[in-house]
Amino acid sequence: MAPQFPSIQTFFHPETSNSPTRPRRPLSPSSSAGNGFTAAEVENVLHPTVRQWTPHLKYEGCDIATLVSGPRNVTFTGRVLNFFDQQTESKMPKAAKGFIKVVLGDGSGALVVRLWYANMDYCLRLGHLVSVWTIYVSAGETSNLTYATAPLVTTIFPERDSSCHFMVHGDRDDDALCKTPLGYAEGQPLPGLMTVRNFIDGGCDIDDAKILVCVKSKGPKKKFTSKKGRASELIKIGIFDDTAEATFTLWGSVAESAAPWRPSDTVLLITSPGWSIDRKAHLSINGNTYVEVDPCMTDVHWLRAFAQRVTKRDHVNQPFPVDFFNVKEATSSELRIRYTVADIDEFVRAAPKEIFIGYLSVTIIEINLVLLYYRNMLLCTECCGLPLFANATTATCRQCDKQIDLALNPKIVLTTQIGSLIDETGSIIPGKLVWSTEAWVQLFGRTADYLASTNAQLLSYMEKRLLFLRFTLVFGWSEDIGKLAICRVMR
Predict the structure, then answer these.
(1) 93: how many CB neighbours lie within 10 A of its CB?
(2) What number is the average pLDDT over the span 384-388?
(3) 160-165, long-range: CB within 8 Å, 24+ apart, which pairs?
(4) How far apart are CA 341 and CA 330, in angstroms?
(5) What pLDDT does 15 receive?
(6) How far apart (Å, rounded) are the C-alpha atoms in residues 362 and 341?
(7) Local confidence band at 418 (pLDDT 50, 70, 90 cut-offs)
(8) pLDDT-based confidence at 415, cuts 50/70/90?
(9) Which of 111, 105, 178 is nearest to 147 (CA)?
């Protein structure tokens, strides 16, 4: 038998360390090593909102009306009149996710921009001021790309082509730039413009029919699923003019445009809306609709003033004008004038623009705290054009989801908190007074927080105690307010 030689391993001995070793902790899924980037940095790369761009070509600035079909390095600025997000399905990692069909107008004309995107979020809204840099403008290849008033189209893909760019100005928006309506001339009627009543009575069948309306209210956003299985949103906007009211529905990504609109202040010029008329006109935005937000024309100022007058008259709880009247000086003066209801009526009719403060002695002949308490309408206010009622000092607006402070309710349909105030010469109907917080506390001897948290038994006791009592009111009058402002209550 051949002798066996030792292997090489037998000549080496394992080395041992005298220092204690720390056991290695196993990695859990939550403590796995990262790649060195924060979640915000990853999100900015995957969904960028701002991209730095430096033009390397010379671009000629021009109005939309002067554009012609063909290759040309041009830049122009306009307002978003309509847009539609068309998503595409592709498994290629670098393929475009879709395109936004944007209609821009600058007062001289309109143009369609087909904006392709991959990861960019442009966050467009109706009325946004936008600047475009492009190297080619063409006539519409198909009828669904252009309109009779917007015959040209430019296709850009800023994320892939450095020779084109699309900029939304955002906070640098100029209120007067590019807000002249298409076809408008100073001192002349706008072609196709009609009232809401005329639109309902048959004007909707006219091509390029236009209506000038003011926002009255904004409904809550509603989520729905489209036929293609995609989640989307819609919002219904209450609109009106001096002849009639209607509902204007915004769908999809256009629904976000209504966020900055203010009831009784934002004016819309709507051209060729979709419509459905039964008991009330239901309008919507479609592919042929133009929406111009607060356009520069004389009728806008008249309509906004009319809407604000209606708001003062119909506001469910008009806010008290704090620091408008110098109550301290009036109450400390040696000359204190006491009016009757008839005196106030005569004085206001003779000099409606005069501002004055005085005293008024009246008797309460009706009060319904308990009824309003059971109806959960003890306090109220208005937000986004929608009334809010609650037996609490705060409530959440269904439209903007903000916490809104409520005040004691001076007027409710079919019933009133202060039913009627009378003296020897006349009476004041419910809803014609604006009460300050101090006046409410002096009248009831309780704060609004206490009344909202109390029970019906105590409210019933307060009703019986205050009924037919005579009070002296410190009031103020101003045409800007339109109602008697009750500053203080003296017993």
Answers:
(1) 6
(2) 81
(3) 160/116, 160/118, 162/53, 162/56, 163/56, 163/57, 163/73, 163/133, 163/135, 164/132, 164/133, 164/134, 164/135, 165/53, 165/55, 165/131, 165/132, 165/133
(4) 19
(5) 55
(6) 9
(7) very low
(8) very low
(9) 111
Report how far apart, in Å, the C-alpha atoms of 198 and of each of 210, 215, 240, 286, 473 are: 10, 18, 13, 21, 47
Give the sign of the dihedral formed by CA 462, CA 468, CA 469, CA 472. positive
Structure tokens at 121: 């979020």
From 26-35, 40-49, 393-402, 478-487, the region with the lowest mean pLDDT = 26-35
pLDDT tens digits, one per residue of 312-356: 666 778 888 888 888 888 888 888 888 998 898 888 888 888 888
User: CA 159 to CA 118: how far, in whole Å?
Assistant: 7
* Residue 459 and residue 369 in contact, taking contact as beta carbons nearer than 8 Å: yes
Write out pLDDT tens, residues 243-253. 999 999 998 88
Q: Would you state the structure tokens that stand for residue 323, as one six-digit string? A: 């620091």
40 torsion bin: left (phi>0), alpha (psi -120 to 50), beta (else) = alpha
pLDDT digits (tens, 9 = 90+) for 137-154: 988 765 566 677 788 899
55: pLDDT strictly greater than 70: yes
Take residue 109 and report the two structure tokens written for it: 């004309």
Q: How far apart are CA 67 and CA 62, in angstroms?
A: 7
pLDDT surpasses 80 at 164: yes
